[in-house]
Structures are given as C-alpha cells and as structure tokens.
Amino acid sequence: MPTSPSPDDSGADQVAAAGQANASDALHAAFARLAPQGTDPWNFMAAFTHLADRYGPDHPGASAMAELLTRPDTAAPRPSRLRGLRSGPTESTGSADIEEAMGHVIEAFRFLNARVRTLEDQLANRDTPVDGAAWLAPAAELGEWTALVSAHIEAAAPTHEILHADCGDGALLTALRACGIPAAGVEPRGMVALGPLEQGHRVTIAEVTEVLPGLPTRTLGGLVLSGVVDRVPVHVLVSLLAQAERTLVSGAPIVIVTTDPEVARSTWSPTTVDLVEARPLHASTWESLLGHAGFVGFGYLHDSSGDTRRIGLHATVAR
Amino acid sequence: MSAIHHFVPLVHRGDAVGRHTLRLRDAARAGGFESQIFVDITQDDTANETTSILDYPGLAHPDDVLVYQFATASYMAAWLTEREATLIVNYHNVTPSNLITPWDAFVGLGQKTAEEELRAMAPRTTLAIADSTYNEQHLIDAGFRATAVVPPSAALSASALTDRARSEQPSTARGARWLSVGRLAPNKAVEDAITALAVTRRHVDPDATLVIIGRPATSAYDRAIRRFVADLGLRDAVTFAGYASDEAVATAYAESDVLVVTSDHEGFCVPVVEAMNIGLPVVAFNQGAIPDVLGQAGVLVDTKDPYRLAAEIAGLLGDAVRCRAVQQAATQQLEELALDTAADRFISLISSLQVAGAGT
Predict the structure, then answer these.
(1) Pairing relationship of beta strands A295-301 and A310-317 according to DSSP bridges
(2) Which conformational region is residue A143 in: left (phi greater than 0), alpha (psi within -120 to 50 degrees), or beta?
(3) In this predicted structure, what is the pLDDT of residue A79?
(4) Domains in chain B: how many in total?
(5) Do A73 and B62 form a contact (C-beta atoms < 8 A)?
(6) Nearest by CB to B224, which of A2, A3, A35?
(7) Phi, psi at A243, each rounded to 5°
(8) Cβ(B350)–Cβ(B65) below 8 Å
(9) Are B231 and A41 an interchain contact pair (Cβ–Cβ within 8 Å)?
(10) Tens digits of per-residue pLDDT, B1-39?
(11) B52 and B170 inside one domain
(12) Domain check: are B192 and B122 in the same one?
C-alpha cells in the first residue's frame, strides 16, 4: 500500500499522497452526505415518549422520577403522574380529569408521529429503492467509447467544467484532462471511485441524481451520462434531464451512452432487473425525453469499433 | 455509614455502566455494607437486581452514602442533589452534544442537559470519582473540588474472555478480521473503520472483513452506516451483529485479528481492555481517554486519513514481532489498571472518606 510521504519521497510518491488525500476527502464527504438534512434529525418519537413519561399515564418502562420529584419523602403508590396537581382539596377530581385529557393528547401525538414517519419513509424510498443499487447493474466502463465522447466534447469547445456520471475508472476524465478540458466525475460505487480519486480526479461518491440538484444554474460546460441511465426508473430520468437542462450553460452538449435495451433484456439477471428497476431506453425514447427537457440537435455517436451493445446519443441545450 | 446505595437511571446486564454498578454493589456488600441499586426505569433483564427509586425514601437513613452513576441526563441528578445524605458521583463521561445533535436532535438535547446536570451537582458532591484521568479533567472543569480516579469494573471478566482464548495457530480466514465493539453511535465514527476497510481491500487485503457489534443508538446513524457500506460495495465484507451477549462478544474477540477503535470521543473505552485481556491487538484513533487506557499496548493513529489507518493495521498484523510486543505491553498495562480490584478500591475510597469525615 502507498504510505504517506516523508520529506525525502520522490515526486511520484507525493503525487500518490495527493491522490490519497483527494480520495480520503471524497470518502468523508460521501458519508457526510448521508447525515440527516433539514428537520430529519428531529426525533419526534423520542420527544413524544419523553412527554408521555413525564406527564402521561403510567406504563411499563416509564420513568418513576416524575412521581418522586413531587413527593421526595414518601414512597406511596403513584396516584397520578402529573406534577403539582396532587395536593389540595380538588386533587382527586382535577388531576384525574387532566391526566385523562393529557393521555388523549399524547395518544394523538403518537398517531401524528406514526403518520409523519410513514410519509417520510415513503418519500425516502421513492427514488432509491435499494441501497447500493449501483453495484447491481453492470455499468460498463466507457472503454472504446471514451475517445469518441472525448472528441465530441472537445469539438463543442466547452467553456465550463464537464461532468461525467457514472465516471467509473475515470478514463474519460483523464482523456479530457489531456485535452485541457476541466472535468469532474460522479460515481456511486465507492470502491470504483477510489481509482480516479487516487489519480487526482475530482469525483463525488454519490448518485448524479443527488448531485445535480445541488449545483448552481448554468455552471456546467457539458454532461456525460453513462451507467446511471441504465439503472434508474424513467421518472427519475425525467427529473435528471430537467436538472441537466438547468445546470448546463447555453449550447452545452449532453452525451448519453446507454446499453441497448434488447441487449440488457437478454443479459441482465432477473434479480438485477427487478431490484434496480433497470430498463434502458430505446434511442427514440431518449430523443423524445431530451426534446421535452429542452434539448435540440439530437444525434448519434458512431462507434467505429463495432460495439453494438451500447448506443451513443448527443444533444445540446436549446437556449 | 451502614449503607452504600447506587443510583442509576436504568441497568442493562450487558451494558458497561450496568455491569459496573452490579459489581460495585457486590463489592460493597462484600465489604459489610448494605447496598442496593435504585433505578428510575426498571428493565426486565435486571428487575430482580434493582429497586425502584420510588422505594428509596422509605428506606433512607441519614448515614447513607449515595453513589450516582453519571453517564446520561436524568431527573435523578437534581433529586439526589436535594437530598442530605453524602453524595458521590461516579462519572463515566457524557458524549459532547455536538457529536450527536446532527443525527438526533432530541438525544443531543439530552446530552446538553446532562452537561448542565453535572455542573449543578458539583457544589453538593462530597467526592467525584472518574474512571479515567481524561474524565477527571471533565469533573474539574465542571467545578468538582474533590476528585479521584478509579477505573470501571465494566469489562467482561478475564475468565469469560480466557475461556475463549485466541488460538496461536494461523487463522483459516482468507483475509484479516477486523472487529468494532460499542454502541453504533455517531461519536463512535464507525464510518472511519469502514473507509479504511475499503482502502485495505483495494490495496492490501481484498478479503479483509469487519464485524460491528453493538446496538444502534440512533436510527439515523444506523441507516447512514448501512447505506454507506452498501454504496462502497462492502455488503459482503461488513457484518452488523447488533447487540450481542457477553458470550458472543467474547467469541468475537477470540475470532478476530484486530480491534479497530475509530471513536471521536471516548471517556474510557471498555472494549480496549477486553481486547487486551484476550491478547487481541488494538489500533485506535488517538483521542479522549484512549491513550491513557491503551498505553503502549496498541497502535494510536493521529489522523482520520483512511489510508493511514489501513496502513497501520496492515503494518501491525503483518509484523508478528510487533504483535507480540503489543500483547506483552497489554499484560503490563492491565496490571497497572488492576481492573480486578477496581470495585474494591472504589468502595475502600468511599469508606476512607467516611472515616476521615468522622475523625474531623
């Protein structure tokens, strides 16, 4: 394993160390993205349980302290769990009524919490049916398509950074860098992403569907989609193309390298198809989707190596 | 003094504070004191070992010594502070709320409350006993004037561990077997062990595996860790064992090659001494009480760089001489900690305090 460089290390080792630092940062960022967002860390159930422990009717597993805090010097059976309502002439009737009412309020909170949790679960699962789904679909490296895609991007003379998802081993990033074109990758398979990261490429370990919504409007000089387009449901692809149209600068190219649907049908395992909702689209469907999303100039990339397993498509932002 | 009673919010048999409290109770009784464990919430697995705090007022005696096991927020703290009996705080550390709140705001709020409760107990406490010098500093910072250090009696017993002594024979496993033991909580930073495992499998040992033992502390962190494992393609390499019995934990120590501790914050870290007891090498991040507890009996890593952690683990496991040196150092470290007599020392400390008080 490469180790951290000492002052005597060669330049090559220092490059390796820089790559490791790059990969280390990306791994930490990948986990940080999984932390709850917004109000997600609000643990409603714990809060309501606490409320019930303190003020609600007695129940197994409840705290005894609400009782004891009221009468520290007695060990009498608890007549009520409501603090401050157990003394005086109206104790028996007043506290009982309020306790009953509080019990209903807490029960209502529990129902509300259960409903909120159900809705949150439904929302969380809508676009990510299986954790680590990227490993289930056989997203091939660009391979022989790398030069073709790189040439197409170079011909468009991009003025802004290119984004490639799923970038895999980073071959396209390397090719674009060799042409002087700034490029970054998105790769959901963490172990695969370590390769380009250790080479010093900027790669985000995530699904591109999670990354694009966070990018500013009109900041990408081009977008290459491979792998991911074979793996996610159609409604996610529609959202993805809308985000692509938003983030690309005027006239920027979008390139899609997708598995031929007939090939996918014959080679993918039933488990993969079932679990990842994998359904590569036909070229005509892509043309329709791209048109609806605001792309024009639809065309094909022609692979001279005779690869009939995949289809290359391109278009540009209309505005 | 005729009684040394222990107060703790709840007691789980497999939980470190629970095991510690049970042993202190036994040590007090062996020393001739009446001793009971009073709990706020009764647990099924320890119901016959504990008494509801509601029953204490009826049993209270002015000469009682009340020992509060402080590890989390509880109404017990304020209630004990208001009583007149001699009060001892046994401090096991409170995880800083900033490590918890991003994952569970309610639990984080509880940690913040615990920090306030600790400060509020300081003026009223006769003696505060920490389980590490690191924790003792927390007590001093919180305003406690009389402090001492006695390590916890929370580790699995040496006999339980040596019953499953690690074999000197080479493992038949294809790759190194990493182990993580502790609650699956944000401050344990298990993700750092997972990233180091990814690096190890890519560069050094494609068959390395990690077993994670411990019940989830927050569902959000649990979900994130599991998804992270899936995203990295490590589903087949990482086992989430969840809560495990003492026997299962002892077996896991015996069947592992290294204990990996990546916590951001540890007040003591019982698994480290358990690993030392069974001769399992330890590689840990250099933080909190870990340097004090581990001494020279393992490898401390100063950075959260997964490449560095992976390299340190591979370096240790690949060096038999170094492994033996670490195991020898563990033996010495355990002698210094003297965990077997810790409960007796704890009770003696309280007894001497009372004697000194009576003499003035």
Answers:
(1) antiparallel
(2) left
(3) 38
(4) 2
(5) no
(6) A35
(7) -65, -35
(8) yes
(9) no
(10) 689 999 999 998 778 899 999 999 999 999 999 999 999
(11) no
(12) no
- The structure tokens listed for A215 are 């990018």
Query: Which pLDDT belongs to residue A115?
Result: 76
Residues B40, A20: C-beta atoms closer than 8 Å: no
Task: Locate B292 and state its tokens.
Answer: 């004090």
Test mutation, A4, A13, A14, A20, chain B, max B CBs within 10 A: A20
* Residues B82, B192 share a domain: no
Supply the pTM of this predicted model: 0.86
For CA atoms A251, A253, A254, A260, the dihedral sign is: positive
Q: Would you tell me which residues 63-82 of chain A have a C-beta closer than 8 angstroms to some C-beta of chain B?
A: 63-69, 72-75, 78
- CA–CA separation, A267 and A272 (whole Å): 10
Evaluate whether A222 touches A248 at the Cβ level (below 8 Å).
Answer: yes
Whether residues B321 and B353 fall in one domain:
no
Same domain, B122 and B223: no
Give the angle B174-B175-B177 at the CA atoms, nearest 5°: 125
- C-alpha B101/C-alpha B334 separation (Å) is 35
B179 shares a domain with B82: no
From the list B102, B218, B231, the residue facing A30 with the nearest CB is B231
Tokens of B145: 């004037």
pLDDT for A250 equals 95
Residue A234 pLDDT exceeds 80? yes
- pLDDT of residue A204 exceeding 80, the answer is yes
Question: What are the backbone angles phi and psi of residue B47, rounded to the nearest 5°?
Answer: -60, -35
Pull the structure tokens for residue B139: 């007590």
CB contact under 8 A, B226 and A67: no
Does residue B343 share a domain with residue B333? no
Q: Is B92 or A106 the better-scoring residue by pLDDT? A: B92
CATH number of B224's domain: 3.40.50.2000
The closest alpha carbon to A173, from A156, A195, A191, belongs to A195
B68, β-bridge pairs: B7, B89
The overall average pLDDT reported for chain B is 92
What pLDDT score does A34 carry? 93
Residues B298 and B345 in one domain: no
Chain-centre distance for alpha carbon B113: 21
Side-chain half-sphere exposure of A249, counting CA atoms within 13 A? 12
Across the beta sheet with B4-8, the strand order is B51-52, B37-39, B4-8, B65-70, B86-91, B127-130, B147-149
Residue with tokens 């290294």: B258
CA distance B37 to B45: 14
Edge-to-edge strand list for the sheet holding A310-317: A203-204, A183-186, A162-165, A222-226, A253-259, A310-317, A295-301
Owning domain of residue B22: 4-151+339-358
| Residue A90, pLDDT score | 45
The complex's ipTM works out to 0.90
